[in-house]
Automatic annotation (TrEMBL), chain A:
Protein name from the UniProt record: ABC transporter ATP-binding protein
Database matches in InterPro entries: AAA+_ATPase, ABC_AA/LPS_Transport, ABC_transporter-like_ATP-bd, BCA_ABC_TP_C, P-loop_NTPase
RNA-binding keyword on record: no
Molecular-function GO term, any one: ATP hydrolysis activity
Gene3D superfamilies hit by this protein: P-loop containing nucleotide triphosphate hydrolases
Domain ABC transporter: from-to ranges: 6-247
Pfam families membership: ABC_tran, BCA_ABC_TP_C
Entry keywords, A to Z: ATP-binding, Cell membrane, Membrane, Nucleotide-binding, Transport
GO cellular component labels: plasma membrane
Automatic annotation (TrEMBL), chain B:
InterPro entries for the chain: ABC_transp_permease, LivM-like
Record protein name field: Branched-chain amino acid ABC transporter permease
Organism: Parazoarcus communis SWub3 = DSM 12120
Gene Ontology MF: a single term: branched-chain amino acid transmembrane transporter activity
Annotated keywords: Cell membrane, Membrane, Transmembrane, Transmembrane helix
PANTHER family tied to this protein: ABC TRANSPORTER ATP-BINDING PROTEIN (PTHR30482:SF17), HIGH-AFFINITY BRANCHED-CHAIN AMINO ACID TRANSPORT SYSTEM PERMEASE (PTHR30482)
C-alpha cells in the first residue's frame, strides 16, 4: 500500500454550539480516488473547506505528505499542491475561458506582485491555460465569455481552473452537481482520466458515479468518519446502511 | 487594443476594458501641455490654476479609482489620505522644510503608511462595514486635525509660499501648472503600468470573484492591502499638490464630504475605467465652476446634472464608448458575442 498523502487527525470545527466536524480521522493514499459520502448535513462541505484552508480548524491536525498544514492559509496550501473545486460554480463569468485559466496559471507562476513588469511575454500563461483547456475539452471555446457557456461547460471549466493550478491533491466538491446524464458521464470519464497524475478526494451525491470511480470510500456521519474502505466493503457495511436508512432510503437503494 | 492574452478579440472583458490606447494618452498629454500656454496668451491666467486644480483632483479621483473601481474596495475615507498629504507638506513648510523633493515624498509616504494601517484593519470587513470603517477612520483624522492647535485647529495651516524646486519657480500659475502636470503625469504613467500589470489583472479578478481567486492560490488580502496602500499614497500626492495650490490646508480637506466628492467623480467618470477618475473630476469641477458663476443655488443644479449623467450612463461616462458601439452594432461589446457563443455552444452539442 502506498503512503498516505493526506492524514486528518482528530479534526474539529465548531459553529457556535454545533460541532460540524467532530474529531474526524481520515487517511488519503497517494494516487487514489477517494470518495467522501454521507447524508445531507454530515459535514462533507465543512471538512472540504477545512482541508482547502477556507475554514480554520478549532483543533486537530492535517498532515500533507507528513507535514503539518493545519494553520497554512489557502494560497500556501495551493502552492503545496492542494486545490479545490466548488459545488456551486465559482468562476469569473464576465471573463473569457482563456482569461479564467490564465489567472489560475498566473497564481502558480507568481509575479502577481510584479507591479510594473512588462506584459509583453504571456506565452507561459497561454501555454498553461491551453493545456488545462485541452484537458477538460474547452480548447475551442477559449475566447468565449464564461457567463455565456452552458452549465455543463462551466462545470468542466470549474474543474479546469483547479487543474491549471497543477494540484497533486484535488478536492472535488460535487463535480456532477446539476449536470444532465450525458454531461455527468463526460465528467466521470474526465475524473477517471485524472487518476494517473492526481490524488482525488471526491465529494459526490451521485452514488453510481461514486462506486464506479472510487478506489476507496469514506462515509461521514455527524462530522466523523464511520467507515472507510473499498466500495464493496462500504456497500455492505451495516453501520453505513443504518446511517443512510435513517436519512434517505433511496440513497440506500442506489447503493445496493 | 492589444490583448494581453494572445490573439486579439472583438470583446473587451473587465480585465482589459477602459485601458487607453497609446495615441489617446499622447493626445491628452499634448493638449494638457499646450493648454496653459494658450490660456496665458489669452490673458486668462485664472484658467491655468483651474487646470492645475482639475489635474490634482483627477489624480485624487484616479487614486480612489484604483481601490474602488479596480479593487472593488468601496472606501468612503479617501479624504483622509488627501488631507494627510496636505498636512504633511504644510507642517514641513511650517518647520522650515520647503524643498519639494523632501516634502512631496514625505507626504506620499505618510499617506501610504496611513492607508496601509487603515487598510489592514478595514479589509478584514466586507461590504457596508468596509464603507463605514473607512469613513470612521477618516473622521478620526478630521477630529485630530481640528483638535490640535499646533496644526491650526479649525482654521487649518496656511503656507507662506509653495514648495521649492531649484530652477523652477512655482509661485506663478504657469510654473506651478507644469509642476503639477509632470508630477501627476508621472503618477498616471505609474497607475497605467499598475492596472495593466499582472498585479492589476489579479486585482480586477479579485473584484470579480474573490473566493475563486483565493481558491486558485492568490494571497487575496495582501494583494488588496497593497492596492489600498498604493491608492492612499497617490491620494497623498494629490493632497500635497492641493496644499501647494491653495497655499495651505484646512480640516475641510479631511471631511467625509470630500471623500464623497471623490467618489462621485469616480462614479460619473466610470469606475474601473482608466480615464474614469480623470473624466469625472474634470466634469465635476467644470460644472461646479460654470454653474456657481451664474447662480447661488449651484449645488442644486449640479446635483440635478450629476443625477442626469448617472441616469444616462450608470457605469460612468467612459462606459458610453462601448454602449455607443453596441448600439451601432459595429464592434459588439459583449451582447453580440454572447449570442454567438451560445449559438456555438449549441452547435457543438
Amino acid at each position: 500500500m502506498s503512503q498516505p498523502i493526506l492524514q486528518v487527525d482528530q479534526l474539529v470545527k465548531r459553529f457556535g454550539g454545533l460541532v460540524a466536524t467532530d474529531h474526524c480521522n481520515l487517511e488519503i493514499r497517494a494516487g487514489e480516488v477517494h470518495a467522501l459520502i454521507g447524508p445531507n448535513g454530515a459535514g462533507k462541505t465543512t471538512l472540504l473547506a477545512q482541508l482547502s484552508g477556507e475554514l480554520a480548524s478549532d483543533s486537530g491536525r492535517i498532515l500533507f505528505e507528513g507535514r503539518d498544514i493545519t494553520r497554512l492559509p489557502i494560497h500556501k496550501r495551493v502552492a503545496e499542491g492542494i486545490v479545490r473545486s466548488f459545488q456551486i460554480t465559482t468562476l469569473l463569468p464576465r471573463l473569457t475561458v482563456r482569461e479564467n485559466l490564465a489567472l489560475a496559471v498566473q497564481a502558480r507562476t507568481g509575479h502577481s506582485f510584479d507591479f510594473l513588469g512588462t506584459v509583453a511575454d504571456e506565452s507561459d500563461l497561454d501555454e498553461g491555460a491551453e493545456e488545462a483547456a485541452r484537458r477538460v475539452g474547452l480548447l475551442d471555446l477559449m475566447e468565449h465569455i464564461v457567463g455565456t457557456l452552458s452549465h455543463g461547460r462551466q462545470r468542466a471549466l470549474e474543474l479546469g481552473m483547479a487543474l491549471a493550478c497543477k494540484p497533486r491533491l484535488l478536492l472535488l466538491d460535487e463535480p456532477m452537481a446539476g449536470t444532465d446524464p450525458e454531461e455527468s458521464k463526460k465528467m466521470g470519464d474526465l475524473i477517471n482520466s485524472l487518476r494517473e497524475e492526481h490524488t482525488l478526494i471526491l465529494v459526490e451525491h451521485d452514488m453510481d458515479a461514486v462506486f464506479r470511480l472510487a478506489d476507496r470510500v469514506s462515509v461521514l456521519v455527524a462530522g466523523h468518519v464511520i467507515a472507510s474502505g473499498q466500495p464493496d466493503e462500504i456497500r455492505n457495511d451495516p453501520q453505513v446502511i443504518a446511517a443512510y436508512l435513517g436519512e434517505d432510503e433511496t440513497a440506500t437503494e442506489n447503493m445496493q | 487594443m492589444i490583448s494581453r492574452f494572445g490573439p486579439s478579440r472583438s470583446t473587451e472583458t473587465p480585465l482589459l476594458i477602459g485601458l487607453p490606447g497609446p495615441w489617446t494618452a499622447i493626445a491628452v498629454a499634448v493638449i494638457l501641455a499646450i493648454y496653459p500656454l494658450v490660456m496665458n496668451s489669452m490673458g486668462e491666467d485664472f484658467y491655468i490654476s483651474m487646470g492645475s486644480r482639475v489635474l490634482i483632483l483627477a489624480l485624487a479621483a484616479s487614486a480612489l479609482n484604483l481601490a474602488l473601481g479596480y479593487g472593488g474596495m468601496i472606501s468612503l475615507g479617501h479624504a483622509a489620505f488627501l488631507g494627510i498629504g496636505g498636512y504633511a507638506v504644510a507642517i514641513l513648510a511650517k518647520s522650515g522644510i520647503d524643498a519639494a523633493w523632501i516634502a512631496v515624498p514625505v507626504a506620499v509616504g505618510c499617506a501610504a503608511a496611513a492607508a496601509c494601517l487603515i487598510g489592514a484593519i478595514s479589509l478584514r470587513t466586507r461590504g457596508v462595514y468596509f464603507i463605514m470603517i473607512t469613513l470612521a477612520f477618516a473622521q478620526l483624522f478630521y477630529y485630530l486635525a481640528i483638535s490640535l492647535p499646533q496644526f491650526g485647529g479649525d482654521d487649518g495651516l496656511p503656507m507662506t509660499a509653495r514648495s521649492v524646486i531649484p530652477g523652477l519657480p512655482l509661485d506663478g500659475d504657469l510654473g506651478f501648472y507644469y509642476f503639477v502636470y509632470f508630477t501627476a503625469g508621472l503618477a498616471f504613467v505609474l497607475l497605467y503600468r499598475l492596472v495593466s500589470s499582472r498585479f492589476g489583472r489579479a486585482l480586477v479578478a479579485i473584484r470579480e470573484n474573490e473566493r475563486r481567486m483565493a481558491a486558485i492560490g492568490y494571497p487575496v488580502y495582501r494583494l488588496k492591502l497593497m492596492a489600498f496602500t498604493l491608492s492612499g499614497g497617490l491620494a497623498g500626492l494629490a493632497g500635497a499638490l492641493l496644499a501647494n495650490l491653495s497655499l495651505g490646508v484646512t480640516p475641510h480637506t479631511l471631511t467625509w464630504h470630500q471623500s464623497g466628492i471623490l467618489m462621485v467623480m469616480v462614479i460619473i467618470g466610470g469606475s474601473g475605467y482608466f480615464w474614469g477618475g480623470i473624466t469625472g473630476a474634470a466634469i465635476f469641477l467644470l460644472l461646479e465652476e460654470t454653474i456657481s458663476a451664474h447662480t447661488e443655488h449651484w449645488n442644486l443644479v449640479l446635483g440635478a446634472l450629476l443625477l442626469f449623467i448617472v441616469l444616462v450612463a450608470p457605469d460612468g461616462v467612459m462606459s458610453l464608448r462601448e454602449r455607443v458601439r453596441a448600439l451601432l452594432g459595429r464592434k459588439p461589446a459583449g451582447g453580440a458575442e454572447a449570442q454567438s457563443s451560445i449559438a456555438a455552444g449549441e452547435k457543438a452539442q
